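Project standup — Tuesday

K.O.: blocked on the structure for the chain from last sprint. Re-posting the sequence here as requested.
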Amino acid sequence: MNRYLHCLRGVVGRELLRFLHQRTRFVAALVRPLIWLFVFAAGFRMALGVAMTDPYKTYILYEVYIIPGLVGMIQLFNGMQSSLSMVYDREMGSMRVLLVSPFPRWYLLLCKLLAGTLVSIVQVYVFLTIAWFYGIQAPLLGYVWILPALIVTGFMVGALGMLLSTFVKQLENFAGVMNFVIFPMFFLSSALYPLWRIREGSYLVYQIASLNPFTYAVEMIRFALYEQLNLEAVLIVVVTTAILLALAILGYNPARGMMARKGGGGE
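H.V.: unblocked you, prediction finished:
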């Protein structure tokens, strides 16, 4: 057990140190949601007010509605960024050192996922603090309730990015693949607009958004922020996370996964 804890501290500590040394990464992670909050939300405020609906008790402004979606944006981009670093480590050879250690490969991948999730949670709470001083304030207990939702969502998007990294060997190719995953997942969800409003505009887009697991991740965060549990969203996100994680672990299995088919089992 001590050896496993030592491995966990090593992997998580390395990821946190990398994050602290990459200040531009931290700034970039906050710039995207803050632009939506300060610029786009201000312009859409009058046109896109949200009617009374769960978990809100009254009519709300647009910027209040999109806060959970922007939290999801932070985690989505961070999950892909963490997987991008895995591709980089694989190219540089440092991933080989990690994967040939005596620890089970699934445990090492879980450690990487946990490290990436912790980094995203730090970014989320900094963003929520800025939003608090901007005047968008949720119930105080909501900031505690949201923590389990952030952990599960962080694992889901991290496992997705990890799975994608098994298919892409070149760093440049993975950066392109990210754009085909991040933006459709984010915009075809309830992050920026309620599902009922999307259905009024396009039933096809509504159906796609209803099948998008990121929609339920955002709704899980939204309800948790207001001290409520959306059981349907929780179940869908947990099941999706388990499936993606199993596929990612299989992909990194040198005997059966994509790494073996690409001739990268040693990496």
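K.O.: great, moving the ticket to review. Residues 3-252 form one domain. Residues 257-267 have pLDDT under 50 and may be disordered.
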